[in-house]
Design brief:
The complex is a heterodimer of chains A (261) and B (273).
Chain A (H helix, E strand, L loop, with lengths): L2 H15 L7 H25 L1 H7 L1 H14 L10 H11 L9 H16 L6 H19 L7 E4 L5 E5 L18 E7 L5 E5 L2 H12 L2 E3 H9 L7 H17 L4 E4 L2
Antiparallel strand pairs in A: 1-5, 1-6, 2-3, 3-4
Helix pairs in contact in A: 1-2, 2-4, 3-4, 5-6, 9-10
Chain B lengths: L5 E4 L8 H6 L2 E6 L1 H4 L5 H12 L2 E4 L13 H13 L5 E4 L2 E3 L3 E6 L5 H18 L4 E3 L13 H12 L2 E5 H10 L4 H7 L5 E7 L2 E4 L2 E3 L8 H14 L4 E4 L7 H21 L1
Parallel strand pairs in B: 1-2, 1-12, 2-3, 3-4, 4-7, 7-8, 8-9, 9-12
Antiparallel strand pairs in B: 5-6, 10-11
Classes of the chains: A mainly alpha (261), B alpha/beta (273).
Chain lengths: 261, 273
């Protein structure tokens, strides 16, 4: 190791741990400035994305968690908005850092809100107006008669079909879950860029995940999926389900419909 | 687009002030690419609008030019794409490092040694090769000396020369460092090579103690710092100068008073030229 690298790692280590390795009072004071600036900055990034997790843990445990994240996790991303994803990765990889079984799911749910708000796609003015035009045409001509068969469906990057073991969307410091309750939620970004969430059922999340995995599928493929051996809905029921799902989430602008050519 | 006159650091939350900014004395704005380039949704839309209306420059935070970690070339390429997309002429960074076995998201001081000069200059050259243009590096504020083979001034000037890059001259940092490390701010300014100054920064700082100032960008610019900006113009000629404000951001009308101050000082010197 070069002398330069050694000096740099020494300072970085003191900043990460918050433990100053010097007997010189003035140097201690100066290292402490860095320790405070760095830790407060990191804590601020985490607290902004995970306010509910922070409030359910209490300040003392929360600060200890951020400290262990700082010491133990090597952040790869240079992008500030991805710090919370690094934090989530750390939590997922470090069992025992969280006291309650629902905390990791809560953290994931809080992170999804940021991921949806900042997802690429439908960002430029032109893209939005194109999409609006397609949707408007679709609404007028086809929704009324239930004609979905001519459209392909895809899930924008900003839409997240989610399945949890706990009701993450109702958790707060005063409302901690006592036992698991299967919970299905779709988080999406509306045309005015606001983040919305809607409670749903297992089958909708299942179908949306299927669409997501195949990038873009037809109405018929959705029905085939629901009538397949894995799910075994009968034809009429499957058709009705897909129709309702398309109608609801198209209205919310949480899915993208493209005319099949 | 080339930058000139006075500028303002553009932060998220200033979206609704864009028209006011364009109509004011602000001639250019600066963004941190790390804060914008992976942001979709309304943010890309905002930035596209900014770049249509006013010259845009980038001031990076995460390049970590002095880091013991490998240089992130993929990241530099992403910056290049970002600059092309939003018609950005310049990329500037800090003469500092913010990672050591992983990112730490704030700035640490590089030891002032010959070894560090060679190491950092080589990395700046590499970045310039990838971007196919010169970059500017900023003299940073620091609170701790981690290597004193060279003075700060010698270190800065040696890096500028060996990397053949431009300087983003932060006048507030000169002031903060001159107090924290007990040197003469004016003689530091005297030694800066005029021809390397691309543009300047000015900002407010926090008085931690009489002998310790912290560069927070969270307060109004102090009178001593305005005086140093005047001194720098007198010494090196007027250069484009940008106001940075990151915390306790006041209403835009108040920020623009400080931008007007930059413009007024610049005009004073232009008349005497």
């Amino acid at each position: 190791m070069t002398k330069l690298t050694e000096a740099q790692l020494h300072l970085a280590q003191q900043i990460r741990t918050g433990v100053t390795q010097s007997n010189n009072k003035d140097e201690q004071r100066r290292v402490e400035i860095y320790q405070e600036l760095f830790f407060n900055n990191l804590e601020d990034f985490c607290a902004t994305t995970f306010p509910v997790l922070k409030s359910t843990m209490g300040t003392k445990k929360w600060l200890a968690l951020v400290r262990s994240f700082f010491i133990e996790h090597q952040c790869e991303t240079p992008h500030f908005i991805e710090i919370s994803e690094e934090f989530l990765t750390y939590l997922a990889q470090s069992p025992g850092t969280l006291d309650e079984p629902w905390m990791l799911e809560l953290a994931h749910y809080e992170w999804v809100e940021l991921a949806s708000a900042t997802a690429m796609g439908d960002s430029g003015e032109d893209v939005v107006s194109d999409r609006e035009a397609v949707v408007a045409e679709f609404d007028q001509e086809l929704v009324a008669v239930g004609q979905f068969s001519q459209y392909l469906v895809s899930i924008p990057e900003s839409t997240w079909p989610l399945a949890y073991n706990y009701p993450v969307h109702t958790i707060s410091a005063d409302n901690k879950p006592l036992e698991p309750t299967p919970t299905y939620i779709v988080v999406y970004r509306d045309p005015s860029y606001e983040i919305q969430f809607v409670g749903t059922d297992a089958l909708t999340v299942h179908l949306m995940t299927f669409i997501q995995q195949h990038n873009q599928v037809s109405f018929t493929q959705c029905i085939d999926f629901l009538t397949s051996d894995a799910i075994q809905l009968e034809q009429g029921g499957a058709q009705q389900f897909v129709q309702q799902m398309f109608a609801e989430f198209n209205q919310r602008r949480a899915i993208t419909l493209t005319l099949q050519i | 687009m080339e930058i000139s006159g006075s500028g303002l650091g553009f932060r998220r939350g200033m979206e609704n002030d864009l028209t006011t900014i364009v109509e004011s004395n602000v001639n250019f704005v600066e963004v941190a690419p790390e804060n914008w380039m992976r942001l979709g949704g309304k943010f890309q839309h905002t930035l596209a609008e900014v770049s249509r209306k006013i010259p845009l420059t980038t001031h990076g935070l995460s390049l970590s030019i002095g880091s013991p970690d490998p240089l992130d070339i993929e990241f530099v390429r992403e910056v290049k794409t970002f600059m092309n997309k939003f018609n950005v002429r310049h990329y500037t960074e800090h003469l500092s490092y913010c990672s050591a076995n992983g990112h730490m998201y704030d700035l640490m001081p590089i030891p002032f040694t010959e070894e560090a000069v060679r190491y950092v200059a080589a990395r700046i050259r590499l970045v310039q090769d990838v971007l196919e243009q010169q970059i500017a590096i900023e003299n940073v504020s620091y609170y701790l000396k981690t290597g004193q083979e060279l003075s700060e001034s010698e270190f800065l000037n040696a890096v500028l020369a060996e990397a053949d890059c431009k300087l983003l001259f932060d006048v507030n940092n000169v002031y903060v460092n001159s107090i924290n490390h007990k040197y003469n701010a004016k003689s530091f300014i005297d030694k800066v090579p005029s021809e390397r100054i691309l543009y300047g920064h000015i900002a407010g700082h926090y008085d931690e103690a009489v002998d310790l100032k912290v560069d927070t960008h969270g307060d109004d610019v102090k009178p001593d710092v305005w005086a140093l900006l005047e001194y720098a113009y007198a010494k090196h000629g007027v250069f484009p100068t940008l106001l940075e404000r990151d915390f306790n951001i006041p209403p835009m009308s108040e920020l623009l008073v400080e931008v007007d101050m930059i413009t007024a000082i610049q005009n004073k010197f232009k008349r005497t030229l």
